[in-house]
Structure of Carboxylic ester hydrolase:
Amino acid sequence: MTQYADPVVDTPAGAVRGVRDDSGEFYRAIPYAAAPIGARRFTSPAPHPGWSGVRDGTRPSPTAPQPVRDFGGLDMTPYFGPGWVRGEEYLTVDVRTPAADSGKRPVMVFVHGGGFVTGSTRAALYDGSAFARDGIVLVTVNYRLGIPGFLDLEGAPPNRGLLDVLAALHWVRATIAAFGGDPGNVTVFGQSAGATLTGALLATPEAKGLFRRAIIQSGSGTGAFTPEQARRVTTAAAAALGVEPAAEAFAGIPDERFLEILPALAGLELRTSTATDPLAGLSPFSLVLPVQPADALGNGPARDVDLLIGTNTEEGHLYLVPQGRLESSTWADVLALAAGVCTDPETEVAAHRAARPNATPGELRSAVLGKALFGAGTAHLAQAHARISGGRTHVYSFGYRSTALNGRLGATHTVELPFVFDIADKPWLHGDTGLLGPDPAPDGLAARVHAAWVAFAGTGDPGWAAYDPQRPLAQVLGS
């Protein structure tokens, strides 16, 4: 590889040194807000004070405190990254750019997933080299997770992780021109929890003017907790810690203790008389909103934002196959799941069985789970956006089936990411326990998917017709 001199960029907060390679320039661990330490873990993000001299942007950032997550026989390290890498200053962004010049290139801001409790910019899946290669300035964002990020507490603003993403978008608007990006052509895109956060931005008044386009990969426009559901989680957390459910009481508790009590929050009964559990018991944290984002798009910038949105065809497999539950599932398991996530579970299961009469209980359990977590909320959001945006909505369905775990993993949650980032040929994604399995990715699929994302960021057109609510069809990617 060619050796290059390290570039330096002047930003409003101070100068940053990065690295230059064959795909462009890379600047890491740039703070967009002050370090969230002590009581500041439960406040709105504060402006960073800046620095003198040249900041080292060649090394990765610390990460938000987070637990270790285990997906059985599947290696999810490329998705979750290294876990908790300690350090106070983790409200940071990484910037990958073709060149820090006056280019005014399209900007894409990626918000990672991880169930609102894990993930970071350090995950290998978020390698932005291909985006820089294709003329995009890519920004990846760390935000607060778990209790500091999403527990609803008296005396603290709600949805602090979402406030962090908003602060990062303000940073982009003020700073990205120094990295060769166009602050007037910003696309926010996220996956899983990050996609749900992106959907919430569409309904957030404070997000108006901060981005022109959005991409929602396997998120949900109906994935927020109601205030009543959030209170149940807060009550349980306070009881586990032995303190009052208020920010003042939580402020002196170390992050290690917050992680220790997470098992006590797992599996809480969150179904209420008015709402099912939108996360099906998989996480005790989500956004907390009185109205779901899909029902509140008129409050935010959605009307003026182009939207690309979709899901994978076997989302639920990730939560069953690696744990050996796909084959062991029974009809009782299917009905029990449906009872927790559907308002009319018997009708829901009957509809799935009618659509797939030869499916096993495990396959139907996966289908019910995938629809509850991602499918229904994605369809609701796509319909709502298409009705108000005048042809600005594009929908996809990703169907490539991973051959991991003896060919059983399928087109599961997260499997589209290597194709979006055009890194599906990386060895660490393959093998029987790798996300894509032992088989090579189909020729050209990653190039086509990645090109659609790049085209959408540039023009709002991914290469297929806009979504029609009266004829709701999706573009199939993979088969």
